[in-house]
Design brief:
The chain has 354 residues and is mostly beta strands. It contains 4 helices and 19 strands.
Length: 354
């Protein structure tokens, strides 16, 4: 069964949380970033002295958004808020942790007010043990095999393309235990032709903070006004917008866990599933997944596990292409529909009989 709604919703959520920096997926491992560069090649007279920051920062340079080289782990936080007259408030708060080797990352989004779906929800995205887990309102758990390793720096800052042009050096400040060079973000640095920047109206005191040693981003703040429908629920409503993204606690060990509601996490799936289950979803009482095991092996699994839950023995039906197991359980009849998939494996659908 294919369902693209959850992908769309997750994309909207991440875009909502990251709109001031764009969103995307890295396709290459992070490389060691060079010092911040100006757009134009400086002359010998204009070049900064060794150890001195560049007078301007090229926001279109993709190397600026690489992860810091040689860092084993770090934390990510994001505070993204919208407020308008009449107590219209929406916000997204993100807390994340990333481990470089073996690669593991987790992001927890907490929404309030009118943000995203309204009413306040918690969303999770986690990659651990070679599996991606996604949990959000209305779905118990979605799993799948990850694509290219994601770079949270690039995801948060670059590929949406909202930041552009040159930012001017305005000073020095210690941020998240690093000495940083501070560059000013102005309205000229917002690409309003990009979907992430379309709603921006004004930019007030906004900054990007670059670690002097290493040249990576430590903080981005944007304070201004705009229209952010995914926070306000109203695409025409103008209000105050505040965005602050931070990377911190470099090298401090992190503990990435499978999110609540996923098999092996805080909560279990509604029905037992094999250990190698992937692409697991639960929607409106229907659970689906794929397994690398053959149909007969998955059938044997359910013939053992369902009676252990108090269900009767399986009643079998079907052809060589599909096998249906029906169990009489205390809560009602449960059907397990198993189909072979190429090159080898099984697709499963589990649901209560109406």
């Amino acid at each position: 069964m294919k369902n693209h709604h959850w992908i769309t919703t997750l994309s909207i959520l991440i875009l909502a949380a990251l709109a001031c920096g764009g969103t995307g997926v890295a396709t290459q491992p992070a490389e060691a970033p060079p010092p911040p560069l100006a757009t134009d090649t400086p002359s010998v007279e204009d070049a900064p002295a060794p150890g001195e920051p560049a007078a301007v920062l090229d926001l279109d340079n993709p190397a600026l958004y690489n992860q810091p080289a040689g860092v084993a782990s770090y934390l990510t936080t994001l505070d993204y808020r919208f407020e308008a007259p009449g107590s219209v408030i929406g916000s997204v708060r993100l807390e994340g942790a990333t481990q470089a080797e073996p690669y593991e990352t987790t992001l927890e989004f907490d929404t309030e007010g009118r943000a995203v779906m309204g009413g306040g929800e918690t969303f999770y995205f986690t990659q651990i043990g070679g599996i991606q887990y996604t949990v959000y309102e209305g779905f118990s758990c979605l799993t799948g095999e990850p694509g290219a390793q994601e770079n949270p720096f690039e995801v948060m800052l670059d590929l949406g393309g909202m930041l552009t042009g040159e930012a001017r050096l305005i000073g020095e400040e210690t941020v998240n235990d690093f000495v940083t060079d501070v560059y000013e973000i102005t309205k000229d640095n917002i690409d309003t032709s990009d979907p992430a920047g379309m709603g921006v109206e004004t930019i007030d005191e906004s900054r990007i903070y670059i670690a002097r040693e290493g040249g990576f981003v430590l903080r981005l703040t944007i304070d201004g006004t705009g229209r952010v429908s995914v926070l306000s629920g109203d695409p025409s409503l103008l209000g105050d917008v505040y965005y602050e993204l931070n990377y911190s606690h470099f090298g401090v060990p992190v503990d990435v866990q499978i999110p609540p509601g996923c098999p092996g996490g805080v909560a279990e799936a509604e029905y037992p599933v094999p250990q190698d289950a992937v692409k697991l979803t639960t929607i409106a009482g229907v659970t689906t997944f794929e397994s690398q095991s053959l149909v007969d092996d998955v059938a044997t699994f359910y013939k053992t596990e369902m009676p252990a839950l108090g269900c009767g023995e399986a009643q079998e039906s079907g052809s060589g292409q599909t096998l249906t197991l029906t169990f009489a359980c205390p809560a009602g009849a449960i059907t397990v529909l198993l189909s072979p998939i190429e090159p080898a494996g099984t697709s499963a659908v589990i649901h209560k009989v109406p």
